[in-house]
Each structure stands twice: as C-alpha cells, then as structure tokens.
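Appendix C reproduces, verbatim, an entry submitted by the partner laboratory led by Prof. M.T., so that reviewers can inspect both the input and the predicted structure.
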Amino acid sequence: MTIIHAIFSFNVGGAETMLADIINQQCKEASVSLIVVNEKINIDLLDTINKSVKINLIKRKEGNKIQLLSAFLKINRIAGKINPDVIHCHDNKLFPFFIGQRKKTLLTVHATNLSCRFLKYYRQIFAISNAVKEDVKERTNLDAQLVYNGIAIDEYHQRTDYISKQLFNIVQVSRLNSQVKGQHIAIQAIAYLKEKYPDINFTLSFVGDGESKAQLKALAVENKIENKIVFEGQKSRSWIKEHLQDFDVLIQPSLHEGFGLTIIEGLAAGLPVIASSLEGPKEILDLLNVGLSVEVGNPNDLAEKIYRVKEDYVSGNLLNTNYLLRDKKQLAVFDIQTTTIRYIAHYKNIISKNENR
C-alpha cells in the first residue's frame, strides 16, 4: 500500500503530533510519503518521523496566492511520481491540489466549526470524535467515519507517587492561543486561588508557544501572579512523554476543542485531569469515566476544581476518586496503534472500491 499524507503546515499541534505518530506506525507496513505545503515547519517534530518516510517540503509562504500555482504543479509532480493508493489530507482546503486524483482523496476533520469548503468532494471524510462527526453532519449533511485520535500510550512515563508536596504543580500543554485554548482562564483561576487560599503554594506551567505569549505574560503581571506562572516554551515530544508525570494535575480550559489530545496524554502520565465541558473533552472523560469537567470560560469554577484535587492530595484520598484512570488499558481506544489499524482498514476498503469500478 502506498500512502500520501498532506498538510499545510507542520508546527506542533494536536493534528501535527498525531499525524507524526500515525505516519511512524503506518510506515511499518506501507510506503508512506508526507507533503507539507507551507514553510511553517517545526524541525524537531519533523525529525521524529521515521527516516523511511519520504518527506516533501513545498515551502510555500503562508497566504501567498501567487505561489499556489507553483505549489500545485510541484505537488502534482510528486503525486504523479508516487502514484499513491490513497491521499490522506489533514486540511479541507488541500483538495484542489489533488483534484486530478479525487477518488483517492480522504480527509480527517480535526476540530469543530471548521470551514466546510470542499468537504463534499472528498471520497471519504473522517472525524476525530463524535463531537466533530456530529458537527460535520449538522453543517454539511455528510457522514464522516469516526476514528479517534491516538497517542503512543506506553511511551508515557506514568506517575505512581501521589504524596502531597509543598508546591502544587499545575500544567497545561497547548499552543499559546488563548482564544482557543483558554490560557487566560487558567491565569485568572490562579489569581483567584492566590486570593482565596493564600497559604497554599501553587504554580502553573504552560508547555507550548504561540501568538498569545506576550498577552498572557502581561495578564500575569496585571494580576500580580507572575511569580506563579512558568512559560516552559515549546518542548519535544520525548520531553512531554518523560516529564508530564512530574506535575500534579493537567488542566485544559479550552474555549473550543473538538477532541483534546493533551487530555489523553495527561491520563497516560497518571495525572488527574480537569477539562472544559465542551463536547470533545467531555466525550473523552465520559467514555473513560474519569476526570473533572469545568464550565467553559469560568475561571472560578476551574480554580475550585484545582483546589479540590489539591485537597485530595493532602488528605490522601486522591486514589479513591475518579480523577485518575484506574487501568491504563482503558486508554486502548485512544492508542495510536488502534488509530492506525482503523485508518488502514478504511484505506483498504477505499482501494477495493476503486479497483472494482
């Protein structure tokens, strides 16, 4: 089987990290190529991809319409040379680049409320959660196949010590885009905790980088909690897999979230997880019967839930709550191997239909 994966940019984000993991699994049993259209590339993430994968960097400047034609020609030369069985796109607007091979084009929709442009032209659409599947159905009347995002569960070091320490470490792993990921809500929650519970020592670490960094730093200063906020910057996948266990609780106070890959990462690392009660995160927590949900955009609710987890550490009651995953085997549905198996099965079905036409 010959597979092309295509994506516009390759920065660190849920879609990109998941794609890197999928490619590394698929290349064990198929010939896999990756096409990245735009010049925005995280080299560290790109370096995690298996060396057997053929990587094609088009290096178009993002937003440059003049370069679209040259990008189209380059991509079609690559696709013509590879002659793939399937072309798996990870952005709906990629379809025009592959219009000549329409019957091979597949699309994964990675979030809710995305543009619906070109969706009807893809041979098959996948959704990363039921929330995304229902969103696609409601807005386009198209049926997407559910394939949950996955991570390499066994590669995450798992916390086993739940003893209360003087410093309570909170972490959020996300791109610093507060309008989507809600980092400002997290900062406001820390300000609330400082005021209401002044005797408790909290720290909040943001793992990631992005356009909201300056704004978030200013907000921390404004609330006089800059000494409690740590901007860790962008970390490698290996760092996250090894060090997520070092924190006490993972929070994900997103304002928009179709799934929530970092929620799975937190659970894989043995952490209690607190996430917004959006459809995507709630779907994960409800399916696993684990974690705490908070009202979207409510920093006080987030703060109180953080405090509740902290108190359960102090009392030694944490292991008797449902904040933690009881058995890591429950995460099998979100394991990258499961994700890969499901995609391969769908590919084979599409290939079979194409051959019988």
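The chain has two domains: 2-150+335-355, 154-331. Additional entries are available on request from the coordinating office.
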